[in-house]
Write a structure and sequence with these properties.
With about 160 residues, the chain is α+β, with helices and mostly antiparallel strands. It contains 5 helices and 5 strands. It is globular.
Length: about 160
């Protein structure tokens, strides 16, 4: 099976939103078409933030991967985060995930990235096995997040 990766462009926005909506529904993540469209458009327009690739089997988009870029003293320079990684369910279990992670890692090496991070749902053992098998290890820290886009009143339940 031939899998290729194509850098997403602004003209792919509708297709990307369809894939994002599928992923968010499966993962029970919020999806707001207008907000997500704006955020994706910003990412697609500014390569300094990261990159989005469509995962393709021949000419059919079967998923996507989003890599965002950061910088870390702990990791001695540029680091990256696999922000979202989605393969449509009927294409899973065929080695595409492993191949896509290798693609992301190779891309990071070219970009001078020292560490690549990702997060996985506690209740997604298939993804956990994949990530562990290709060398990702749990970090001895909890990932904690404060959503700064949410008002403090909403954050406190008021």
């Amino acid at each position: 099976m031939t899998i290729n990766y194509r850098v997403a462009e602004i003209s792919d926005l509708t297709l990307l939103l369809e894939l994002v909506q599928e992923f968010h529904k499966i993962e029970k993540l919020a999806f707001d078409e207008k907000v997500d469209r704006d955020v994706l458009a910003n990412l697609l327009a500014d390569a300094s933030l990261g990159q989005v690739w469509l995962i393709q089997k021949e000419d059919e988009a079967i998923g996507y991967i989003i890599l965002t870029l950061g910088y870390s003293l702990e990791y001695r320079g540029r680091d990256a985060f696999i922000d979202e990684f989605y393969i449509r369910p009927k294409y899973r279990g065929q080695g595409i995930g492993t191949q896509t992670l290798a693609f992301a890692e190779d891309t990071c090496r070219v970009l001078g990235v020292q560490a690549l991070h990702l997060e996985v749902d506690f209740e997604n053992p298939d993804a956990q096995r994949l990530y562990h098998r290709v060398g990702y290890q749990p970090h001895n820290r909890f990932l904690m997040t404060k959503n700064l886009a949410v008002s403090e009143d909403n954050d406190l339940g008021n």
